[in-house]
Amino acid sequence: MKILAWRAALLLGALAAWEALARPLSPVLYVAPSRLPAAFSRIAAVNDMPPLGAHAWLTLEEVAAAYALAVSAGLWLGFLLGLRRTVGRIYEPLLAAVYAIPSVVWYPSLMLFFGLGPASKIAFGFLLGFFPVALSVLAGIRQVPQHLITVAVSMGARPGAVFRKVMLPAMASTMVGGLRAGLALSVVGVLVGEILGARAGLGYVINYAYGLLMTGEYAALVLIVGAAVLTIDATGAWLESRVRRWTT
Amino acid sequence: MSAAAGEQIVLRDVSKRYETASGTVPAVEDVNIAVRAREFVALLGPSGCGKSTVLGMIGGLVRPDAGRVSIDGVAVTGPDPRKVALAFQDPGLFPWRTALDNVGFGLELQGVPAARRREIARALLEPMGLRGFEAKYPRELSGGMRQRVAIARALALETPIVLMDEPFGALDEQTRILMGEWLVGIRARTHKTIVFVTHSLQEAIALSDRIVVMTARPGRVKDVVDVPLPFPRNVNAPEVVDLRAKLWEQVREESLKALDIRL
Amino acid sequence: MDHVIAPDRRQWPRATVAAAQLASVAGAVLVWETAVRLRVADPLFVPTPSAVAAAVFSGGAETLPRLCDTLLKALSGYALAVVIGVTAGLVIGSRRMLHDVAMPFVVALYGIPKILVLPWIALVFGLGLSTAVLTAALFAVFPIALMVAAGTRDVDPSLITVARSMGATRRQIEIKILLPAVLPSVLAGMRVGMVFAMLGVLLAEMFAGVRGMGFLMQRMAMSFKAAELFAATLIVSTLSIAVVLLLEHVNHRLGRWR
């Protein structure tokens, strides 16, 4: 209880400090929290701003497509490398090496190939989200206790049954962790793509506000998108803890 | 190769080597063991003498490099859940399944319908003192309970042979002794052939009809001792004390070799 | 999946695995070259590996200074992030109350895509050096702080008890016990932080830059200079892998007692 009180105090204190610091400074550059409610209503009113709903929907579609691709490819590659030892030994280091490269270097090439439309954003979101999924499958397979597999085999389980009845449940929480991280990264990928250059979508709207120096609206948008992302991730975290409790 | 009358499990001139990073390690060499149907045979020996390897070979989990392992005259090529069930020191219960579902696992693999599986599982768990715990998960059970569930899981397969690899090794002494008594009761009721690995003389003498003493690595059969005493066995009876002394002499020699200590 | 069920089998020796990796990469390059030559892929969008290789060498004059520029900004931002992140991590990690109160906020801030804040940073600090360095710092500071905080929290309390029983002051405990104990986490966080710092710089350069590799690559994309762009991507990628390998090596050297 005391902790919650302190957290509330911290939050209020931060807001107060923000207000105090921002108020006397140039309103073009610095947005005090008190300006936000008005900015929210202006966004909703769709007068000087592009319709948020339509753009948000597009971004959502891009994220869904990118994530679907990331999960399919990630699971496929993860299981391929994890279940076939020789293939895994050859290609996993290559995967890890590519993972060490800052993802954004691929974006200009994607833009060149796919153009400024949704395709490049989907491609980038897929690229970012794919790695955590694949790597979590590999890690998940590795941490399955060998003994459980021995027990199942000693009772006559065939490889298919071992996979379905022992490996999958034992890997479940690690995999869900990877799926959750993959979602977060797919979202980031799509947003980065939209902000770096797009004609539609939430990133485009944010750029629009920024470009016209509508800093209040820009700040409001950042909070909206930020809150949305956090909510999505919180749902993922909740799912992950459920799976973890069920399988350990 | 013909089995002598009543011999159910036969190991003939069996050897096994393991490849490790630091070279080849011989686990067992020229092992000859015969187990008759319905016998309780204990494999006794120091750590690393290959007892678990022998068990693994009978269970079809480990393939011998030389020699032959056969059950009822047929060579063992892999796990055969119709003939052999295993229980290990680590109960290896699936954490995502309840006690009931764990016990039913082997039956599930064989396609037994769910209702029947649950029935069999419940019937096994009840006399083990686990009534009311069927819906509990392994993390909610004590070490002794988990091991009982693991053994119930092995028994559910209703195989003529049960192999046990130090199943009570991780339990405290009191629980160990009680579990031993309980196992004797199960055996009396079900008449199964049991091969039981242990490094405890006490346990071997209390539970088995015959004790196979193994040497330190590479494991060979050092001696085979009969234990023709009636059940239940009195730990303090003179025959038991004599037997323990005789066994200890042999095991001590091998244990010292295994530890490479000179006293 | 045999190796999972029966891990008894023999595996390929390391040399063969390395050869297979090389062969795979070489094979992929060959397929790529043939595909473009046969016009399966449009050379306007997908340059041949040979063209890319040529661009790597011919673009040297233009690329090298920009590469150094990017690297320098990344290192500056990284240094800033290390100072702030390690300090914050140590402080939050060692004070129980502060940790419990503040942690959810830090994690929440970490969860918000930092790209959202980039336009504002560019607005306030302009198009150029400060923006890039600050973005790098922003991206790198979170993983560093979080890892250091976790490492500090996980320090075995019995070590501290022993020190205190011998009369050590808070300062002495912090320097002689905490610091060496959290060093592995600090190094791990710093490794991750470096990649994030590079990410931040490149992102800032692409969004609001006038110099550096990110800006160059964005420009090449806009003018359809595919071969040059691929070459630049290759160069930056190699640089990052090299930096990560270097940091791994340093980490391995310093962490040998583990």
Describe this structure in words.
- The complex is a heterotrimer of chains A (248), B (263) and C (258).
- Chain A has 248 residues and is mainly alpha-helical.
- Chain A has a single domain, classed as Orthogonal Bundle (MetI-like fold).
- Chain A has ten helices and no strands.
- Chain B has 263 residues and is an alpha/beta fold.
- Chain B has two domains: 183 residues, P-loop containing nucleotide triphosphate hydrolases (Rossmann fold), CATH 3.40.50; 69 residues, no CATH class.
- In chain B, β9 and β10 form a beta hairpin.
- The longest helix of chain B has 22 residues.
- Chain C has a single domain, classed as MetI-like fold (Orthogonal Bundle).
- The radius of gyration of chain C is 23 Å and the shape is globular.
Helical residue percent band of chain C: over 70%
Distance between the termini of chain C: 33 Å
Provide the structure class of chain C. Answer: mainly alpha
- The CATH class assignment of the largest domain in chain B is Alpha Beta
Note the main sheet of chain B: 6 strands, mixed
Percentage of helical residues of chain B? 25-40%
Order of helices and strands of chain C, N to C? HHHHHHHHHHH
Tell me the domain tally of chain C. Answer: 1
CATH superfamily of chain C: MetI-like
CATH architecture tag of the largest domain in chain B = 3-Layer(aba) Sandwich
Oligomer state equals: heterotrimer
Number of DSSP helices of chain C? 11
**Rg for CA atoms of chain C:** 23 Å
Record the strand order, biggest sheet of chain B.
Answer: 6-7-8-3-9-10
Strand content of chain C: under 5%
CATH class of chain C: Mainly Alpha
Tell me the radius of gyration of chain B: 19 Å
Largest interface comes to: A-C, 59 and 57 residues
